[in-house]
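Technical annex B. To support the medicinal chemistry partners, we prepared a structural model of the target in complex with iron/sulfur cluster, based solely on the information shown next.
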Amino acid sequence: MTTRRVQNYVCTSCPIGCPLQLVHEGDEIVEIEGQECNRGAKYAKQEFVDPRRTFATTVPIEGALYARLPVKLSAPIPKHLMMAAMGEIRKLSARAPVALGQVMLRDVAGVAGVDVVASRTIPRTLCAPDPRAESRA
Ligand code: SF4
């Protein structure tokens, strides 16, 4: 006989933050309580079966008014791959101009279809040196 256990979560699907209790026997979900709407049950199931996370950060950029380009994941990735994703992003750098949504890295941490994308447009600044001009000289 499998022991019945309770996992506690806080639903982050909206600002209310309902406290959720997911009761399970091994891998089998028995019941979910505490949610104010259906999204809470969906959230708790996802957390129990395949917890995922997303994040935003910045990478260095050349030829722009700002020194850093804001980037984000295009979709959540498995929680256990977060450190691998951060390690890959840490090696990135960009060169202006960059457009909002531009893919900076495909399939981050080996997750097919999840990319690192620019979260803002950054034009090339006129006073920044054009690296292509150096190669033409
Ligand atoms: S269960 Fe519904 S109401 Fe509660 S935090 Fe989640 S989305 Fe919001």
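Notes passed to the chemistry partners:
Residues 4-49 form a domain with the N-terminal domain of TfIIb fold (CATH 2.20.25).
The chain has two domains: 4-49, 56-126.
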